[in-house]
Amino acid sequence: MLASAALLIVALAPGRIVGWLSDTNRAEEPIAAETERPTQAPPAESARQPTLDEPFRGSPAARWATGTGGITVPEAKATGWMSRVQVERALKQTRDFLAAANLDPVALQGGHPKKAIALINPHQQDVQDFLKTAFREPGSQNDPLLLFSRFDTTQVRLVGDVVKTRGRITYREGERGALQVASDVTYVYPVVSAEGGSEVVRTIVRREVVLSWDDPSKVITEPGTFSLVSYKVHMTNGGCGASTGYLTPPFATGEAATGAVPEVDPYDRSTSMSEQAASDDECGTATRS
User: Fold this and answer.
1) In the chain, how many domains are there?
2) Angle at the Cα of 157 (from 154 to 158), degrees rounded to 5?
3) Is 259 inside any structural domain?
4) What value does the CA radius of gyration of the chain take, rounded to a whole number of Å?
5) Helix orientation angle between 14-26 and 2-12, rounded to the nearest 10 degrees
6) pLDDT values of the chain reduced to their tens digit, one per residue, 289 residues
7) What ranges in 62-202 are assigned the alpha helix state H?
8) Taking a C-beta distance cutoff of 8 angstroms, is the pair 97, 116 a contact?
9) Distance between CA atoms of residues 39 and 203, nearest Å
10) Which residue range is the domain that position 231 belongs to?
11) Distance between CA atoms of 193 and 199, rounded to whole angstroms?
């Protein structure tokens, strides 16, 4: 009788049943790659909390791609001193850098991001000085988190091996005919306390990095390396206070900002980071995580 009743409902109102199933599955359907800046923030999700089995539940990131799959790379065209093939290679190596700096398991677990650093022009002295100091004596001006995502595994454990990403790479001709490549990517890391427990916190890191693949006839560089032009970072649930060189998500009695602070939606990619309310040196309030 139960089976007959189910068949009768489908026969009488098939559109209603299909619609209900669509609503149920819509939150899990992947969304198209980001090819340009969106015009608005993602819509609000249900208020469901993340779990160890579903760490992205209740977040727009549930529909994002995984790892480098969420970083859109444009079609290569001859630009500046580079041929189309050279531009294609530079774009791939740029994505390799982003992966080594933000997705590599060794780096995420607090290790030295050797693969990423190997792609930076060793003759760019100010950046090399920053890198040497950042890992030895991290501070507000020499913080490895400005370029790399890292967790202290004695305090934090990643939930699974999936990091959700959304963003894109663009390029144009830069100074002295260089290929200037810009990236704007948001990374979502689900974590739990290393001490145990089931409370899942999502640390969200958005990075805008601009780099230059220089003409070796005009700039001292090494093959397969780039020069850093600029880098910006905004972190949610990544720590608020003195730098330790690691992302420090809050658990249970987590840290809270006080006073009149700006509110930021960490999933809103419709504006550049320079247009967002929170500045690099103040702790804002995230509207969702």
Assistant:
1) 1
2) 150
3) yes
4) 22
5) 100
6) 333 333 333 333 334 333 433 344 455 688 999 999 999 999 987 778 999 999 999 999 999 999 999 999 999 999 999 999 999 999 999 999 999 999 999 999 999 999 999 999 999 999 999 999 999 999 888 999 999 999 999 999 999 999 999 999 999 999 999 999 999 999 999 999 999 889 999 999 999 999 999 999 999 999 999 999 999 999 999 988 788 999 999 987 544 443 445 678 999 999 988 877 544 445 667 888 8
7) 84-102, 105-108, 114-117, 125-136
8) yes
9) 24
10) 43-286
11) 8
Distance from C-alpha of 219 to C-alpha of 142, rounded to nearest angstrom: 25
> What does pTM read for this prediction?
0.87
Chain-centroid distance, C-alpha 121: 23
Q: Is residue 245 one of the residues assigned to a domain? A: yes
Q: Determine, yes or no, domain membership for 1.
A: no
Confirm whether 254 is domain-assigned: yes
